[in-house]
């Protein structure tokens, strides 16, 4: 066998960072040694694994074919090493991308539980909107993703984690706040502030409104839920946000959840990972603990 685990580790690190210098720093190698290992691997395989796009190195078709296979070999090598050093198999680092609602309201408890039960497992958390989490998992930035709604990319597996719903909210001072019910025509006349296109919350809301209201008056679109919540609390706007994100504001009386007959906006939070991903006990551990957490929380209610 002509290639080495070191060469595969260099290849995988360059693929993650798009940079030889960053890969060298991560692997504690010199930049020249990193470049040489990558060059030797490409020469041995007889195929270019990267092409330069601006200042970044991007995987070629051959590089994309090799990536999951290299990760499997590296993972197996790590498990062999951990086994001989008598370490627990649930040990190491996993990169996870999560949408805002999950990251703010569910991940802190989950990471705390994991820290208690599996102290050798480290979760690297990235917070993005659903569209960016999907692209991050697809492009190997994250080994596991948590998204809102559906993922239709055939390269990714999806598994439902838990259910949530969206609510249409207004300030306690908004004229609609005193109504028992708000009609579709009234919603159509309102000023809206919503999540940006690409956010899972926005996709679900747009789908629910399709055919019911065709022309919403959208004044602002923002990425951060806290900005939208504050705008609604202090202005003449409506928004549609996950209940988890507005529950405390509703309980304090700063926001009012409007009753809108005919509009029920349910959604799911789901795990996603690459279809060609290697078997990974760390990923399965996180999924298992996440489901256990939701079940335990329901029993407390």
TrEMBL record:
<dbReference type="Pfam" id="PF00126">
    <property type="entry name" value="HTH_1"/>
</dbReference>
<dbReference type="InterPro" id="IPR036388">
    <property type="entry name" value="WH-like_DNA-bd_sf"/>
</dbReference>
<dbReference type="InterPro" id="IPR036390">
    <property type="entry name" value="WH_DNA-bd_sf"/>
</dbReference>
<dbReference type="Pfam" id="PF03466">
    <property type="entry name" value="LysR_substrate"/>
</dbReference>
<dbReference type="InterPro" id="IPR005119">
    <property type="entry name" value="LysR_subst-bd"/>
</dbReference>
<dbReference type="GO" id="GO:0003700">
    <property type="term" value="F:DNA-binding transcription factor activity"/>
</dbReference>
<keyword id="KW-0805">Transcription regulation</keyword>
<keyword id="KW-0804">Transcription</keyword>
<dbReference type="GO" id="GO:0000976">
    <property type="term" value="F:transcription cis-regulatory region binding"/>
</dbReference>
<keyword id="KW-0238">DNA-binding</keyword>
<dbReference type="InterPro" id="IPR000847">
    <property type="entry name" value="LysR_HTH_N"/>
</dbReference>
<comment type="similarity">
    <text>Belongs to the LysR transcriptional regulatory family.</text>
</comment>
<feature type="domain" description="HTH lysR-type">
    <location>
        <begin position="1"/>
        <end position="60"/>
    </location>
</feature>
<protein>
    <submittedName>
        <fullName>LysR substrate-binding domain-containing protein</fullName>
    </submittedName>
</protein>
């Amino acid at each position: 066998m002509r290639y080495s685990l070191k060469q595969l580790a260099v290849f995988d690190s360059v693929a993650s960072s798009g940079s030889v210098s960053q890969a060298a720093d991560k692997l504690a190698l010199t930049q020249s040694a990193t470049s040489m290992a990558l060059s030797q691997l490409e020469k041995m395989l007889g195929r270019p694994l990267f092409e330069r796009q601006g200042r970044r190195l991007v995987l070629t078709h051959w590089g994309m074919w090799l990536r999951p296979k290299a990760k499997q070999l590296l993972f197996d090598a790590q498990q062999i090493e951990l086994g001989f050093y008598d370490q627990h198999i649930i040990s190491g680092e996993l990169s996870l991308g999560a949408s805002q609602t999950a990251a703010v309201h569910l991940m802190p408890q989950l990471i705390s539980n994991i820290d208690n039960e599996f102290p050798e497992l480290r979760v690297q958390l990235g917070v993005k909107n659903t569209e960016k989490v999907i692209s991050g998992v697809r492009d190997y930035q994250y080994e596991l993703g948590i998204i809102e709604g559906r993922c239709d990319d055939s390269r990714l597996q999806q598994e439902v984690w838990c259910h949530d719903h969206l609510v249409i909210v207004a300030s306690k001072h908004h004229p609609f706040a005193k109504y028992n019910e708000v009609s579709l025509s009234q919603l159509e006349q309102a000023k809206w502030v919503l999540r940006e296109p690409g956010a899972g919350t926005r996709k679900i809301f747009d789908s629910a409104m399709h055919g019911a209201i065709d022309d919403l008056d959208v004044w602002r679109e923002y990425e951060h839920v806290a900005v939208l919540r504050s705008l609604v609390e202090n202005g003449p706007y409506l928004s549609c946000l996950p209940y988890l994100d507005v529950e405390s504001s509703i309980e304090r009386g700063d926001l009012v959840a409007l009753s809108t007959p005919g509009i029920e906006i349910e959604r799911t939070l789901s795990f996603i990972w690459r279809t060609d991903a290697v078997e990974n006990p760390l990923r399965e551990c996180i999924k298992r603990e996440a489901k256990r957490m939701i079940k335990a929380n329901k029993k407390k209610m």
